[in-house]
Amino acid sequence: MRQHRAVLAIAGLLLLGLQPQSGHAQGRFPDRPITIIVPFAAGGPTDVVARQLGEAMTRDLGVSVVSENVTGAGGTLGAQRVAASRPDGSNLLLGNIGVATAPSLFRRPPYDPLTQLDTVGLITPVPMILVGRSDLPANTLPELLAWLRRPNAEVNIAHAGLGSASHLCATLLRSILQTPMTAVAFRGTAPVMTEMMAGRIDITCDQTTNALPYVQDGRIKAFAATTAERLAALPNVSTTAEGGLPQLQVTIWHGFYVAHGTPRPIIDRLSQSLRAALADPAVVNRFRELATAPEPPERATPEAHRALLESEITRWKPILTAAGEYAD
Ligand code: MLT
């Protein structure tokens, strides 16, 4: 094991253009474009974050950092693509909390985040809002709960596939309320908004990075923020606790991953670039407009990210097992 680590470290130094003995940087990493794999649909919350970071990291790294949407299976297809990629730092997964919940949702998990991916750093914690179509006959969370609990109610709830953030929130909501709802899966929450505006989807839980602009201009309704405090961007929208649903609290964290075995100096350079991007005024301002904020530098590190990933896998397993949601 020690020998394996030493080989990886030397390979990393060489890839970075460093001589193992001399320590002189010649800047050979990155020497080609970097792809951010977004495991959900274009235009949605993950995509919005990726594009902001891509522009800032392009400025920092001096090579183009572009997004590619690899969608399907609740984000697990994109994650598998990165897990199977060459461990050379040229493919980054932008994964949300779903990376930690997927292992508990599949009888045969399609990949293992702890052994097939390496963490680079945390990016941003994004609030969720419970939203619905604009002509829904409820305006507040208590009114929505009464509407959902009507006898013989036929209600659909959309999410972005088993293992996505919106699926996690929908699963919690359904298990708290114990009322029947038809779950409808999409490849991301961008298409959910399109269907909701057309009146074909009743409710969903989505991240502010996607849903907020639609709420602000009245194309959909917000019933509650799933956060401890009200959102400054939606001061008239109650929290779930204020509206009678204290059990529904969830914030969606995001992180960058590379294929397991990527040399540490490359991970460190990517992590440094992530921290530079998170301090970039363009990123900070856009995040603020979307009711979120960059993670502080001490959390945008491989170690802080790995610690959160491990604790979140442990935290969600019993909750999801009790909710009884599984896929083969
Ligand atoms: C997306 O980008 O569409 C979302 O992050 C999906 C989700 O996890 O709910």
Structural domains: how many:
2
Largest sheet geometry: 9 strands, mixed
Give the overall form.
Answer: globular
Sheet-strand content, in percent, reads 15-25%
Q: Cα distance, first to last residue?
A: 34 Å
- CATH architecture level-2 label of the largest domain: 3-Layer(aba) Sandwich
What compounds are bound to the protein?
Answer: D-malate
- Structural class comes to alpha/beta
Count of DSSP H/I helices: 12
Share of helical residues: 40-55%
Could you please say which CATH topology of the largest domain applies here? D-Maltodextrin-Binding Protein, domain 2
- What is the averaged pLDDT score? 91
Order of helices and strands: HEHEHEHHEHEHEHEHEEHHH
CATH class call of the largest domain: Alpha Beta
Number of strands: 9
Describe the protein in words:
- The protein is α/β, with parallel strands linked by helices.
- It folds into two domains: 31-126 and 251-323, D-Maltodextrin-Binding Protein, domain 2; 127-225, D-Maltodextrin-Binding Protein, domain 2 (3-Layer(aba) Sandwich).
- Helix content is 41%, strand content 19%.
- The protein contains twelve helices and nine strands.
- The protein has helices at 2-15, 45-61, 76-83, 98-105, 113-116, 141-148, 165-177, 189-197, 208-216, 264-278, 281-289, 302-323; strands spanning 34-38, 65-69, 91-96, 117-133, 156-159, 182-185, 203-207, 220-225, 251-259.
- Strands 1, 2, 3, 4, 5, 6, 7, 8 and 9 form a nine-stranded mixed sheet that branches.
- Strand 5, helix 7 (165-177) and strand 6 form a beta-alpha-beta unit.
- Helix 2 (45-61) crosses helix 9 (208-216).
- The longest helix has 22 residues, at 302-323.
- The two termini are 34 Å apart.
